Protein 1
Amino acid sequence: MTETAARKATGPAWPRLGLTQETIVFFIAIAFFAVFAVTLPGFLASDNLLSLLQNVSVLGILGVAMGIVVIGRGIDLAMVATMAMSTAWTISLMNAGTDAVSAVLLGLGFAAVIGIVMGILIAYVEIPAIFATLAMSTVIYGFGRLALVDLDVIYVPEDADWLRALSGSVGGVPLPVIWFGLVALLAYAFLRFTRRGRYIYAMGDNYEAARITGIPARPMTVLQYLLSSVIAFGAGIITASLLATVNIRVAQSTMVYDVILVVVLGGIGLSGGKGGVRNVIVGTVLIGILLNGMTIMDLSFTLQNLVKGAVLLVAIIVDSFVNPRDEQTAQQGDI
């Protein structure tokens, strides 16, 4: 692997120190863990650590999906709405008597259609991703609330043992952690060892050059958003298995910014073409520890959002220095 390729795989190196943003964030996560372990009663309790792992897993799965999109120089602000409404419809269908396989396939199909529509709007209609996905988030929630589900909170059917089993454990390891690891491994293999994965990096690095060299940039953009929506549906199913409910109001929460924070803080540049799954993992670990610590400290929801917003702002500022926009990026308008 060349030096340039290695830098794209791990994130940009910091001058003179030879450290990547990924490495720095990893050490910060360890420091936070050590401080919380010493100062917060109950942080090291098995129940809390189990909750931390489970919450980190769902956030990490969404982070992997967002990472794939951001590497290709896009963004998916509709991800959480897709997760909430597709999963809620699936559970609602099961409650109405639809068999589990059909309900899951319909929910998956709904999520896939959302991803394809967003990809078409961005690739072919040429609407900037940030506006297309923001608008789609509102459309998804409104359509789902009017046509698909009647309640804000949908409960998992009592006989859905297969769904509850998804949040069990194997050898003491929570299954959501295993699902996160599996999604991360598949995404890593896709980005590193497939032609389409290399296309995504090329598009993120220089979209126009990628098109000139014959890369099917528009279909690849559709594929990015299709993958993002399908993975989001999977994260929704795992969340439903953990909570035994689906709350569609999460679609209007700040969760999508937590996902963006995981991606940017981990070292995937918003300018595209850089980073990978490892960046998502370290970003997920840090934010998971931070959120868990703030919860134990009983900080108000408003204060937690303030802290997360400040961290996200700092991460974006750092990203703008570490991954400066070039002329081609500026002309395209990024996301």
Protein 2
Amino acid sequence: MTTTLPVPIEMRLPGPQWRPAAPEQLGVTNAAFLAVRSIDDDSGYHPTIVVSGGLRDDDADLATIGDESLALLRAQGAEEVELLQRTPGGEAAPSLSQLIGAVASVEGRRYDLRQIQVVQVMPDVDDPAKRAVVLFTFSCTFGQFDTIGPEFQRFMASVRPAGEAGVDEPAES
């Protein structure tokens, strides 16, 4: 079922090859937004961008939230899940980027996948004990990563709080 994010955001897809899709049609749960990329290779795997999130009232740090995401990936059936890189960031709002390697079966076919996850945390201005957490997840095959990975960077550069100046084109929300 499609969910809503705890904070409104605007974003722009990184190119015409990307199309929004209904998360539930692809079996994706707890997603507020899903985009699928058309491909011109014979891998059979269509890269995805998934945006999800929720409110938290615990004191889990970013590394713990990142570890929870790895555990969820394993619980969803991915094998050989390995954290390849983790980078903290963000000045105004804390964030964490992580690169993950995993093997997953999709429609009976096994894929060596790469996943980039960006976790952004925004404290509630009225109640500092609460935080909005938004998770941006990009998935592609190992072979697609060098070509398609920069598209995720363009996508992340377009993400803004809804209504913030600086987005010069209509945004996907």
